[in-house]
Each structure stands twice: as structure tokens, then as C-alpha cells.
Specification:
- The complex is a heterodimer.
- Chain A is mainly α.
- Chain A has one domain.
- Helix content of chain A is 86%, strand content 0%.
- Chain A contains seven helices and no strands.
- Chain B is mainly alpha-helical.
- The longest helix of chain B has 27 residues.
- Chain B starts with a helix and ends with a helix.
- The interface between A and B is large, with 52 and 41 residues.
Chain lengths: 222, 60
Amino acid sequence: MNQFNSVVATRPNADVANKVLKNTYILLSATLAFSAVMALVSMSLAVPPIAYMISVIASMVLGIFVLPRTANSSTGIGVIFLVTGLLGFGLGSILSMYLALPKGPQIIATAMGGTGIIFLGLSAYAMTTKRDFSFMGGFLFAGMMVLVIAMLANIFLEMPALAMAVSGGIILVMSGFILFDTSRIINGGETNYIMATYGLYLSIFNIFISLLQLLGMMSNDD
Amino acid sequence: MEWGKILAFVAGIMMLFFLWPAYKHHQQNGKQAEKGDWNAAIFAIGGVVLFVLLLIMSVR
């Protein structure tokens, strides 16, 4: 009887988690496609590289202060498209720089394919394994803070090896965030698909940017 | 200092202000790892490391 009750009790939670997961992936696909369109617009307008930092700061302000307050209403959908559109627009200026490199198109294609495989692989792993990766939260946020401090130091130090180490570190921490976020959705820790999409989008975006930087630096190394 | 560097510095500082409360929240209220949890995470992250090395070799 107890076993029957537990099945009945857990059923609605599993349905909610499946619905959140489905909505998250639909919104994630739409925001990624929108970002790609905005990147193409930015490339066709030949915006300067400084647009990247401006769009990152603007999207961060929206993501920290506006998105959490609007995520429970339909306004949240507009805000997440604004955030991801801004990031896509900024990304366009970086892609234009890479396209001008000798192996630029190959680097961009490799980074894009690599990011896709990492995301799909880790998502499939988090969904199929019985493990709950939500224990990683403290470790991942601590790791991210260490990387941000190293990034800040490198603004003044300008050491290529440190830049490479930070890029590698970001790929690993963001990979951990994919496991963490997917696990939280599956286990009911995150029930808002707009916030879930924002978390996964940021992981994908950061992995792509860091892979681009890492592959760009390694392809120049003779 | 260039504008790009100043903006990167501002973005970094903002990120730290955002990360600190999230870190504290997860340290205090986060789920504790069970036996085998870390091994499962390291296995996945190790796979990413090998894959990134493969990507680097493909562009050299």
C-alpha cells in the first residue's frame, strides 16, 4: 500500500518536471535561434568589438535585476529574448574578428559543433544517470568566482597562458553547470522554465566563447 | 586603459557581486554529495576534457 501511495504521490512531480524540461528545451532552441539571427545582423552591420562588452553588461543587468522579477509572468519571455538577443548581437562582433583569421571559419565551426556535442552529451548523461548533481552548486559558484578573479587579474597581467587556463576552466565549470541545471529540472529543484532556460543558455554561450578563444589561441601556436 | 578593458573589469566586478550570494546560498542550503556522486561528475567532466583536447588537435 505504501509503495502504491508513493507511486501516486510522485507521479504529479514527474509530470511537472517533464513539462518544465520540455518547455525549457523549446524556449532554449528559440532563444539560440534568435541569438544566431542577431549575430548575423551584427556581422552584417560590422559593429565594433566593444559592442560585445556593452551587450554582456546590459544583458547581465537584465539577467540579474529584471529577469528574476518577471520570470513568473509572460513578460519574462520577452525579457529572456531581449537578454539572449543582446548576447547574440555582441557575439556577432567577436565572430567577425575570428572570421578574419586564417583558420577563422574552421575555428568557428569547430567551436559551434563542439559546444553542441558537449551540451547534448552532458544533458543526456544527466537525464539517464540516476545521480542528482545538485550537490555541485557551492563548488561551481566558488569555481566561477575564482575564474572571474583570475580574469580580472589578467586584464592587467595580459598573460596568454592565464587567459588559456581561464578559458579551459570556464569550459569545465560551465559543463558542471549543465549537469547541475539539468539535474535540478529533473528533480524538481527548478520549476520555472524561463529561469531554467537562462541558466542553460548562459552555460552554452560561455562554453562557445571559451572554446572559440581556446581554439583560436591553440591554432596560432606553432 | 582602453574602454574594452574598463568594461571587462566592470563586468567582472558585477559578476562577483552576483556570484557571492549564490555561492553562500548553495553552501548553506545545498544538497550534500552522496557516495559515488563526485565520481559520476568527474567521469562526465573528464569526458569533456578529452573531447576539448580532441578539438584542439583538430585545429592545429
